[in-house]
Write a structure and sequence with these properties.
3 helices; rod-shaped
Length: 129
């Protein structure tokens, strides 16, 4: 029996002149059935691969959507942080002004205390013991 290329079995069977005597009874139809089975298996593999690709694509799309959602949440959180930082900076400036004002009041009170001490000493010198 001669070797036959698998992907063109039905055409080659007719071209080489195979008949039932060479392959046995129903051998040609057997080869045709095997070719159809191989074709069906190939199609099944291709379909399974297509399904796997579709599932992977779906998962990828889901991941991209999830990433976009997370990026939006991050953007909103960054805006809130920036707003909080601006408010904190404003509050810090107000606190600095209050501290500076308090320091000025303390200096003035110190000056007044020094002046009072000087006046008190001057009055004590004028008073007899």
């Amino acid at each position: 029996m001669a070797l036959v290329k698998k992907n063109q079995i039905s055409g080659q069977v007719a071209a080489r002149g195979f008949d039932d005597e060479d392959t046995g009874a129903g051998g040609g139809s057997k080869l045709l059935a095997e070719a159809q089975k191989r074709k069906a298996r190939t199609f099944a593999r291709q379909q399974k691969a297509a399904e796997r690709i579709a599932a992977a694509t779906s998962q990828l799309a889901s991941g991209i959507a999830e990433s976009a959602s997370a990026a939006e949440e991050l953007r909103k959180a960054s805006e809130q942080i920036a707003q909080g930082a601006e408010e904190a900076a404003g509050a810090a400036q107000e606190s600095q002004k209050a501290v500076d004002h308090g320091a000025g009041l303390i200096r003035k009170a110190q000056e007044n205390a020094d002046l009072s001490a000087t006046k008190t000493e001057a009055l004590q010198v004028d008073l007899p013991p």
